[in-house]
């Protein structure tokens, strides 16, 4: 595994473990975070603020990696992301493109189908509303 791929794996793993400060330390000062259909967030302090806020609000995150490919400083991930909040849980496919420079993530660009995300979220909401479900 390349150093760049390991940085990306570490970033996502730290976020899943609720260690947002350690994950934020892997972001470049001028990081750019893109998500399909959402505004681009620029800068470690702004991206870090969003990640810390998710953790503070109790939003759980998991990235189930299917494939990781690296070519120099570019890392591609094929994964299923899981978001949790209380009884709600949604799982959706994500393709991520990362650029790593000097051991820090400079670009984090996640692509996903908004229709897939909506369908998964509706399923998660329905399951959360079922009686007797934790």
How would you portray this structure in words?
- This protein has one domain: Nuclear Transport Factor 2, Chain: A (Roll), CATH 3.10.450.
- The protein is 36% helix and 43% strand.
- The protein has four helices and six strands; from the N terminus they run ααββαββββα.
- The mean pLDDT is 91.
Topology, element by element:
Blueprint: H1 3-16, H2 20-24, E1 27-35, E2 41-42, H3 44-56, E3 60-71, E4 74-85, E5 88-101, E6 104-111, H4 114-129
Parallel strand pairs: 1-6
Antiparallel strand pairs: 1-2, 3-4, 4-5, 5-6
If helices are DSSP runs of H or I spanning 4 or more residues, what is the number of helices?
4
Low-confidence runs of at least 5 consecutive residues: none
Radius of gyration: 15 Å
Instruction: State which percent range the strand residues make up.
Output: 35-45%
Overall structural class, as computed from helix and strand content, comes to alpha+beta
Give the N-to-C terminal Cα separation.
38 Å
Indicate the CATH class.
Alpha Beta
TL;DR?
Residues 3-119 form the Limonene-1,2-epoxide hydrolase domain. The chain has 134 residues and is α+β, with helices and mostly antiparallel strands.
Q: What keyword list fits this structure?
A:
134 residues, alpha+beta, Nuclear Transport Factor 2, Chain: A, six-stranded mixed beta sheet, 6 strands, 43% strand, globular, Limonene-1,2-epoxide hydrolase, LEH
């Amino acid at each position: 595994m390349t150093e760049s791929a390991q940085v990306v794996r570490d970033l996502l793993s730290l976020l899943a473990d609720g260690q947002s400060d350690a994950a934020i330390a892997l972001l470049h000062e001028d990081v750019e975070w893109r998500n399909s259909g959402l505004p681009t967030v620029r800068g470690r302090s702004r991206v870090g603020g969003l990640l810390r806020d998710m953790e503070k609000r109790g939003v759980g995150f998991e990235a189930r990696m299917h494939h990781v490919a690296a070519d120099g400083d570019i890392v591609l991930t094929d994964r299923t992301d899981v978001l949790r909040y209380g009884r709600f849980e949604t799982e959706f496919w994500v393709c991520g493109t990362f650029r790593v420079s000097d051991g820090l993530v400079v670009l984090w660009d996640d692509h996903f189908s908004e229709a897939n995300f909506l369908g998964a979220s509706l399923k998660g909401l329905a399951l959360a509303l079922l009686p007797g479900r934790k």
